[in-house]
Design brief:
Layout (H helix, E strand, L loop, with lengths): L10 H34 L5 H33 L2 H18 L8 H24 L10 H28 L9 H18 L2 H6 L11 H21 L1 H30 L4 H29 L1 H20 L6 E3 L2 E3 L1 H10 L2 H15 L5 H30 L2 H7 L1 H11 L14
Antiparallel strand pairs: 1-2
Helix pairs in contact: 1-4, 1-5, 1-6, 2-4, 2-8, 2-14, 3-4, 3-6, 4-14, 5-6, 5-10, 5-13, 9-13, 9-14, 9-16, 10-11, 10-12, 10-13, 11-12, 11-13, 11-15, 11-16, 14-15
Length: 436
């Protein structure tokens, strides 16, 4: 049923919500996917064996993911009980912003400090998303949630990509931007992310309405009641079949999505592609992904969200097959040599944002609106556990077979299993939870 006009969110609220994706995606692109892994190995871990720095970097990522996965349901439940979603988002965004800016001050060779700040930055980034995702119910309804969610991811790709492009240019030509060298350009790139994230978080905090409900209570009491609510929510999820099946499907296929995101650069290096090719591929994902995140939202309105998601997962299976058969021989198009890694990047970009956006939109339809933060706590928890398990699967298979190409092929299993389970989700009606 379409809500009356006066209950529909304003365009300013919708845009303000979506702009937070523009804000925090700078951390995902410039820091997580781009410069931190390279700078950690070449600058902060100088003098250490490459395998040792890789180990500590991987441990840092796993530590942050485990912490967030463990606390996500409790944070969501506490926010629902107290009605402090925006305040909670601001707190964790602040933690991430300060930690990211702090990387500027970490000296060469001080990898423990860099790793600690990176863990703090990831915790702030990932925890803020719990409350950001839950606020989607304040700016959308059942008829508009696909487009609103896709708008957020689209702006995220564009905003994160623009800042990443600027920082890449500064690193490649530091003298043009007034930097003394590459090291200075990378350190200032971390500062630029902190500023970008902070400034573009303001519209959400100012113009997105806080969902009604919640009572004032102490932190200790909200934690106790939050824990009790988490247990109750888990029981509710088990009882509501449609939500439970979707979360199971999501756990498998988002595992594959996150593995492709986090391990793409490492895989490219393992089979011999150069750093420049990999950075250009990351830029392609951002700017091509921006277009397709919006396009996927339009397609979902016509085909249906579940059907569109299944198509996206099929494309991911193709990505793993094509990626496992890449060679270093470039394509020649109009006399220009182009890395084959670019083709895989474009293929990923066509479905990456759409898969994430439609999953969030699909889930938001299945859950009770008044418990959105709590249910999104479980949603984000599953995503964070997937970040831990997926790369381990790929690395283990690659190590056992001695072939990284077999490792990337194993990721296809996650998409296939996820798609088969998703097929069983009944999306023809809202879940029973939404009527409670």
């Amino acid at each position: 049923m379409v809500p009356p006009p006066e209950s529909r969110p304003s365009r300013r609220a919708v845009l303000s919500w979506a702009i937070y994706d523009w804000a925090n995606s700078s951390f995902a692109t410039t820091v997580m996917a781009g410069f931190f892994p390279i700078f950690f190995k070449d600058y902060w871990s100088e003098g250490h064996e490459p395998t040792e720095s890789t180990f500590w970097l991987g441990l840092s990522v796993s530590t942050a993911s485990l912490i967030v996965a463990s606390v996500a349901p409790f944070l969501g439940a506490m926010a629902d009980r107290t009605g402090r979603k925006k305040r909670s988002l601001a707190f964790f965004a602040g933690v991430g912003i300060l930690a990211t800016g702090g990387l500027f001050f970490v000296g060469q060779g001080n990898w423990p400090a860099a790793a600690a700040l990176y863990v703090m930055g990831m915790i702030g980034f990932l925890c803020s998303l719990i409350f950001y995702d839950s606020l989607i119910v304040s700016v959308s309804d059942r008829n508009t949630v696909d487009m609103v969610s896709s708008r957020g991811y689209g702006l995220g790709y564009l905003g994160g990509g623009l800042l990443f492009l600027f920082n890449v240019a500064a690193v490649l030509r530091p003298e043009v931007f007034g930097f003394s060298g590459v090291e200075a350009a990378v350190r200032w790139a971390f500062v630029s992310v902190a500023l970008w994230w902070a400034v573009f978080s303001i519209p959400l905090l100012a113009f997105v309405p806080e969902p009604p409900g919640g009572t004032k209570m102490s932190l200790a009491r909200s934690a106790r009641e939050g824990f009790t609510q988490v247990i109750r929510t888990f029981r509710e999820i088990r009882k509501v079949k449609v939500v439970f099946i979707f979360l199971l499907a999501y756990w498998f296929y988002i595992d594959g999505v996150d593995t492709v995101i986090t391990m793409a650069v490492d895989y490219g290096k393992s089979i011999g592609f150069g750093t420049t090719d990999l950075i250009i591929a990351l830029l392609l994902v951002q700017f091509v992904g921006f277009q397709f995140a919006y396009l996927t939202g339009f397609i979902a309105q016509r085909w249906g969200t579940k059907r569109t998601l299944l198509v996206c997962l099929a494309v991911y299976v193709v990505v793993t097959v094509v990626g496992s058969n890449l060679d270093l021989q470039p394509y020649r198009i109009f006399g220009i040599e182009l890395s084959k890694f670019y083709a895989v990047a474009v293929l990923v970009a066509t479905v990456q944002g759409g898969t994430q956006a439609l999953s969030r939109a699909f889930y938001s339809r299945l859950i009770p609106r008044e418990k959105a933060a709590e249910f999104f706590g479980f949603y984000n928890m599953l995503g964070k556990f997937a970040t831990i398990i997926g790369p381990v699967l790929m690395g283990t298979v690659g190590r056992l077979t001695g072939n990284p190409r077999m490792g990337i092929q194993s990721v296809a299993l996650l998409f296939v299993v996820g798609a088969l389970i998703l097929w069983r989700v009944d999306d023809a009606r809202p879940s029973e939870a939404t009527r409670q």
